[in-house]
């Protein structure tokens, strides 16, 4: 069962500061999605690659613009895989990882 939720899509760009260091700058956009669980097959297949899948978010495909980080209910996740469904929705497969 998919639960509706507000998701925050986060992309990172970099600016150069006065010391010529690259400083990350986050851009956040809000969107609506539906939270679902990861299937057992997805969990084990991703686990073979060293990933730790946690959550699946389905949303309207044009709302997703390639962001690599998603915040759901205050927790940050990295997008490790996407799947384009045939009905104009995209599924984002998310994992918790350090530094996100």
How would you explain this protein's 3D organization?
The chain is mainly beta. The protein is built from 1 helix and 6 strands. Strands 1-2-3-6-5-4 form a 6-stranded antiparallel barrel. Strand 1 and strand 2 form a beta hairpin. The two termini are 27 Å apart. 12% of the residues are buried.
Write the layout of secondary structure elements.
Elements: E1 3-16, E2 22-36, H1 40-48, E3 53-60, E4 69-72, E5 75-84, E6 89-95
Antiparallel strand pairs: 1-2, 1-4, 2-3, 3-6, 4-5, 5-6
Question: What's the short version?
Answer:
The chain is mainly beta and 100 residues long. It has one helix spanning 40-48; strands at residues 3-16, 22-36, 53-60, 69-72, 75-84, 89-95. A six-stranded antiparallel barrel has the order 1-2-3-6-5-4.
Largest sheet: 6 strands, antiparallel, barrel
Structural class comes to mainly beta
In which order are the strands of the major sheet placed?
A: 1-2-3-6-5-4
Amount of helix: under 10%
Q: Segments where pLDDT lies below 50 for 5+ residues? A: none
Give the tags:
1 helix; 6 strands; 100 residues; mainly beta; single chain; globular
